Amino acid sequence: MTNKRSQPTTPLAVIILAAGLGTRMKSDLPKVLHAVCGRPMLAYVLDAAHDLAPARIVVVTGEDQDEVAALLPQGCERAVQHRRLGTGDAVRVGLEPLKAFTGDVMVLYADVPLVDAAFVHDLLETHRGEAGVATLTTVVTDDPAAYGRIVRDAAGRVARIVESKDASREERELREINVGAYVFDAASLRAALERLQADNAQGELYLTDVISLLLDAGDAVGSFVADDPEVCLGVNSRVELAVINAAMRRRLLERLMLEGVTVEDPETTYVDWGVEVGRDTVLRPHTHLLGRTTVGAASDIGPSTYLKNAFIGDGARVVASFCYDCVVSSGCSIGPFAYIRPNTVLAEGAKAGTFVEIKNSRIGEGSKVPHLSYVGDAIVGRDSNIAAGNITANYDGYEKHATHIGDGVRTGSDTTIVAPVTIGDGAFTAAGSVITQDVPPGALGVSRGKQQNIDGYAERKAARRSREQKDAH
Ligand code: UD1
Ligand code: CA
User: Fold this and answer.
1) What are phi and psi of 196, to 5 degrees?
2) Which residue among 21, 92, 361, 377 has the highest number of C-beta atoms inside a 10 angstrom radius?
């Protein structure tokens, strides 16, 4: 009987189970790589484990899951489960590289991604504060769904875990469920795993049976009753994936709000993990901040805005626009209905207005592209104005060419700029021009037919029409 109280100095190893097939996801992607707020769910569990600074972290994956292995940070070991025989077998596999290890082993499931650093610290502390050789995490929920049920004896002690599929009707009524986060004494766990049998509805080796095996052997088992009912949420189907995403998103938004960001409508605001937003920025409804997006302070984003890998400075305004892989500096104004594409930099105070598309370009300080324009592969200097309906014709059908527009340039409306071409500092272009040659600094580039007015035209046209109608009768 191993009934010794663990010491705070007891070494710790964490085993993360990630080899499951995720059959219910109906996906070619391993389940643990499905994204929760833009990040593979396994990454959250790895973070929590890492925060404990354990001596070892072993992640159990399938042999065909190199994509999962690719996600493992340095210092994390991979153990390969060749046949998915169940969670008990997966832990046995996870213990293989830990043969000589003595101490505490925490087991986490990679498909339960809301477990965070605070949670795993609390679990470990609970285990170390009690005399048992194992501590399992439970939560009391209104919807025990397909989770394993905790069966307690008359004295309220954990007696066993029964899987939903193996439970009797009364057991299925139980509201206390198994979260899937445990701490075991390594030697006790090894011994119990050897006695596991697959005599259950799924024909699997259940880790959950270890609990009753330990109790049968006279070992003490404790429980950590988590106070956050959401922590148990596991992902087995895409329906649950959506539930987890909503829960994680709410957490991320709450964190932003507590840091001084106004979120007008959290229900329709989407942020990925790792997105940063400065204080006094307002996020308006139907706004997405995805990937490695950063927004500065006192900016106004949305409504209906989609930012992905976008850097937005302070005091910027982005209305109903899409911005990807770009830099929008402080004081810029974007939209409504602008499309800012990769490798675009808007310098301070620049503007990209309504129905404006900008790609791979730099718009200088204070320069404006206010309406209905396409700017691609261009460098625009400072304080220039690109008038309505300007197009940089950057593609000759084979290659892309660059446009250079200097400082203080004023283009006329409906200028087509056929690249490669340079418009010098302080130059103008006339409205409706097709600019195919460089415009020197300070010059006006005009290229359009001269206007001619034909007097009396309307009258002559009307007379001709009435003659024609008469002839037809
Ligand atoms: C498991 C628990 C259940 C608990 C629930 C919490 C068991 C037997 N049941 O059920 O009591 O309420 O989690 O979410 O443990 N895995 C492997 N190899 C395998 C099988 C599974 O690595 O052979 C991994 C999966 O990738 C997954 C985790 O173990 O990350 C849990 O497996 P899963 O099949 O999802 O267990 P549940 O049926 O959800
Ligand atoms: Ca699961």
Assistant:
1) -65, 145
2) 361
CA-CA distances (angstroms) from residue 328 to 305, 311, 336, 385? Answer: 14, 6, 15, 17
Domain 12-232: which CATH class?
Answer: alpha beta
CB distance 163 to ligand 1 below 6 Å = yes
pLDDT at 284: 98
Instruction: Give every residue of the chain whose pLDDT is below 70, as ranges.
Output: 1-8
| pLDDT, position 8 | 55
* Full-model pTM: 0.92
- Of ligand 1's listed atoms, the one at least distance from the Cα of 20 is 26
Closest C-alpha to ligand 1, atom 26: 20
User: Mind listing the pLDDT tens digit for each residue in 209-229?
Assistant: 999 999 999 999 999 999 888
Write the CA distances from 249 to 42, 272, 298, integer angstroms: 16, 7, 22
Length of the chain: 473
Give the C-alpha separation, 395 to 137, whole Å.
61
Query: From the CB of 90, is ligand 1 less than 6 Å away?
Result: yes
Residue 309: predicted pLDDT = 98
Confidence at residue 21, expressed as pLDDT on a 0 to 100 scale:
84
pLDDT score at 3 = 43
Which CATH code, of 3.40.50.300, 3.30.450.20, 2.160.10.10, 3.20.20.70, is assigned to 254-445?
2.160.10.10
Cβ atoms < 10 Å from Cβ of 334: 30
Domain boundaries, the chain: 12-232, 254-445
d(CA 293, CA 315): 16
Do domains 12-232 and 254-445 share one topology? The answer is no
For position 223, what pLDDT does the model report? Answer: 97
Residue nearest to atom 13 of ligand 1 (CA): 180
Q: What is residue 337's DSSP assignment?
A: S
Q: What is the mean pLDDT of the chain?
A: 96
Cα gap 323→308, rounded to integer Å: 6
pLDDT of residue 473: 83
